[in-house]
């Protein structure tokens, strides 16, 4: 889950590095609730190796104050 209480004018979203995943397992990454208020990602998400999620990470969405994004990971 990522949330923001205040957004600087020149804010650029960073990368969210995940921890304690199995680097050899592939994970389905799906947006459950997007920053735009949508309840689900219609694409069904993407499958990414745990190693990538821990070293490269996920790009955080641009969030305005009060926005919330929830991302679900499922081991494949």
Structural features, described:
- This protein has 76 residues and is mainly β.
- It has one helix at residues 50-55, and strands at residues 2-3, 15-16, 26-33, 46-49, 58-59, 68-75.
- Strands 1-6-3-4 form a four-stranded antiparallel β-sheet.
- The radius of gyration is 13 Å and the shape is globular.
- The two termini are 20 Å apart.
Which strands sit side by side, in order, in the main sheet? 1-6-3-4
Describe the biggest sheet?
A: 4 strands, antiparallel
Percent helix among the residues? under 10%
The H/E string reads EEEEHEE
Secondary structure: number of strands: 6
Strand content: 25-35%
Count helical runs: 1
Computed Rg: 13 Å
The poorly predicted ranges are none
State the separation between the terminal residues, measured CA to CA. Answer: 20 Å
Quick one: overall form? globular
Task: Note the topology.
Elements: E1 2-3, E2 15-16, E3 26-33, E4 46-49, H1 50-55, E5 58-59, E6 68-75
Antiparallel strand pairs: 1-6, 2-5, 3-4, 3-6
């Amino acid at each position: 889950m990522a949330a923001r209480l205040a957004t600087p004018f020149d804010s650029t979203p960073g990368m969210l590095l995940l921890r304690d995943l199995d680097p050899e397992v592939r994970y389905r990454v799906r947006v459950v609730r997007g920053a735009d208020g949508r309840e689900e990602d219609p694409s069904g998400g993407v499958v990414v190796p745990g190693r990538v999620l821990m070293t490269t990470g996920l790009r955080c969405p641009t969030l305005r104050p009060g926005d919330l994004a929830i991302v679900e990971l499922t081991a494949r």
